Structure formats: structure tokens, C-alpha cells
């Protein structure tokens, strides 16, 4: 009996001691939490966060898709915090002290490593090497057609074939889709391009369905505009919608909110420059800027060419790089371009369309058609669309351009190509800086930078994070970086060479 009482007493005493120790630890333990962001303020997921005490013992946490990390049960004392993630400098802060029961917050903003911002010149290419800093949206694609970024930093990605536009958080986590609930009636058949306006409404150039589909911000289908083989789309002020299609006789047709064509942009009324079979199947694509300008890449011409128009069709300038400036290098299964030593690229202020203006669409009854660009417009019946429908699947020349809600644009041409066609230089992707109207355009693996007047500023040869050269099909110009897709190899973030820290120079 005495032994049983003694055992019971010891058990109670032990439980009491453990409870007391646990209570004391709970009162003494502290916590640390925070958010990890990049230089632009976007959150960084999957960053490794190390909390190291005075004895060099460490605890490791990983940031979630909101960039958050947390350490619970931290004993009082002095610590170091280290944050590491590919593509950024290691962050480290020492002398972080915790008192008993404290709850601390330490947010971290990572920096881009300056040594990776430097560019070098390769003699055989006559272009500075620009190396990707990191990969983005690894789960997107293949078949990427367009990328937009909204005001909240989310990326919208259109791939074809695909029934939806996928939405990704700034950390790269898929968080939604448009249409929100796809049905045979609302899903995308074969999208070539889409436009995201500031309210969240989306306009999709669905080439497979021969129409522009309009979706509300909540992902529901709200409207359609019949257009044969649309390849580029953008929303303009006043409810107007600009479309490039393979069936139109003009570069860009502008429709009102009711789907009536009110004017057209580009081309010459008495010319046949876009009437040949080659031109119809591979005429080009457009992108635009906040001021209502259109940047049309004419891919059927011998020289890589971009024409800038205002919203009524006046040509502001033409960028043209002579094809004989390029050196085509056969790399086995692909073609790599270099540049011959020469002066600056060509720019012509007076293009063949200067002063031609836009062409009016059909009026109502006896009313005049859409207003022309100044020197020429047509009333009455306007000009017919012409051409038959074009479905999805294999195609000889589908092109598109795109733009995000912050004014960032990018343009792409998609075309099934033979070996000889790959030898022809053409602008395969175009992006416009919304703040400066400077143009970034790619010819194969070469990236050209032009000022707002179309003068060439620099040329770069693009390389992935694995040091392999890439050919862009999408360019998204952000304030501190270039987001470039090279389908099917992925999406990459490049440093903007025009934003390099002072003191860094190219190596000859």
C-alpha cells in the first residue's frame, strides 16, 4: 500500500513539474514572422529563410505563395536571419534580439545581384549578351500566346490550344481562370491574343471560333463580335475595339461596341501590297500603347519592319532594319542570328502610308461611314471583310499582339515555318514601354531597343538561365525588368539593360 501511494505521489509530482516547465517555456518563447518581396514589391514564394542562433544552430522556413514565413517558439537570445532564393542576392541581418514572449516582424526586400546585370559583347554577333535572371511561371504553357499583368501583379496567360486563360499570383501560383466555368458555349476554341482592360474585362481573339469573345471580370462570357480569323485585339477609349485579322484587307479594323466596323487602319487604297497569298497568310500583327498608337509588324516584307500609326491611321514613323545586316547561323535544329558590323538601324519617318489615314466603316442608312484619318475616308458600305473562316489547329500564319492593364504590351507572330522561312529575319515579338513609348522588338534571338522616335539604341543577344540562346515570342515591358516568353522553353525575367546601375559597362 505504501509503495502504491509513493508511486502515485511521484507520478503527480512529475506531471506537475512537466506542466510547470511547459508553462514557463510558453511564457518565455517568442515568434518571428515576415514577408519576402523582390525589388518591385512583388512577393517571393519558395524562398529559404534561415534563423541562426549564437551557437550556429539554425531553423529553416520556406515562404508560402504570399511570400510569408514564420518561426514559432523562439527562445530568448540573439540571432541572425538569412534569406536565399535563386536570382537574388542573399539577404542577411545580424543582431536580432528576442526577449521572453516577444512577437517580432521582419519584412525582407531582396536585391538583384549587380554582377548579373552586366552585359558583354560577343564579336561574332555584334550584340551585347543579355542573360535571364530567373524563370517565371514554370507551370504555364506550352503553346503560350499572350501574357498580361493586372494592377494587383497577377499574370494572365493564354495558351493554345486551351479552353481558358489561366491566372497566376505574383508568386506564380495558379489562382483562377477565364472563363471561370467553361462550357461548350463560353470556352475558348483557339485563342491567338487577348486584352485585359483596367476594370478586369477581357477581350479574346478566338481564331478557332472566328470571333472576339468578351468576358466580365468575374469570368463570365458577356458578349461576342463576329470577326473572321482574328489574330490581335485591343480595347480603345469610348468602347471601341481594334482587331487585326487574316481576312481583312487592312492591317487593323476598329469596331464600335455593337460590333459595327467604323474605320480601318493601314495599307494603301490602290496598292496590292497585302493582296498576295504570302502577305495574306503572313502580313503581321499589332500592339498598342496608352496614347492609342498602333505598332504593326509587317512580317511579309523583305526587311524587318514596324510601322507606328495613331488611332485614326496616320503613320508616325517606320522602323526598318535592312535584311542584309543580319547573319544567319545554322545551329543544327534552329537558326541563330548575328549582326554585321554597321551603323545604326534604319528609321524612316515618311512611310508609304503617311497621310493615307483610316478608312471609314459602314454607316447607318445614308449616314457617312466611320471618320477617316484625315486625307481619305469611305462612307456608305465601307469595305467588305472578305475571305472565309479560319479554324484552329495547324495553321500557316497566325499572328497576334497583346497588352496588359498597366500599359505593357507585347506582340507575337505564330507561324508553321520551313527551313527557308527561318532564314528570313522578321520581328517576332514587340513590346512597348508604357512610360516612354520606347520599343523593344525581337528578330530571332536578337533583341533591339528603339527610342520613342524609332531610332535604334542598342541590340542584345538573349540567353536563358541555362546560357542557351532563345527566340522570344512575347515581350512584356515592366518598370525594372523584361518578361520574355520563348515558347516552348518557358518564360524568363531579364534585367533591363537601360536600367543598369551606374558604373557598369559592357565589356568589348
Task: Note down, in words, how this protein is organized.
This protein has 508 residues and is mainly beta. Helix content is 7%, strand content 41%. The protein contains three helices and 40 strands. The strands form nine sheets. It has an eight-stranded mixed beta sheet with strand order 9-10-37-36-35-34-33-32, with no helix packed on it. It starts with a helix and ends in a 13-residue tail after the last strand. Mean pLDDT is 74; it is low at 18-26, 114-124, 268-272, 343-419 and 502-508.
Average pLDDT, rounded to a whole number, is 74
Number of helices: 3
What best-fitting shape do the alpha-carbon axes yield?
globular
Q: Radius of gyration, Cα only, in angstroms?
A: 28 Å
Class derived from helix and strand content: mainly beta
**Helicity level:** under 10%
* Unreliable residue runs: 18-26, 114-124, 268-272, 343-419, 502-508
How widely separated are the two ends?
Answer: 94 Å
Instruction: Please give the number of β-strands.
Output: 40
- Give the strand line-up of the largest sheet: 9-10-37-36-35-34-33-32
Query: Biggest sheet, open or closed, and with what strands and sense?
Result: 8 strands, mixed
Into which percentage range does the β-strand content fall? 35-45%
- Subunit organisation of the chains: single chain
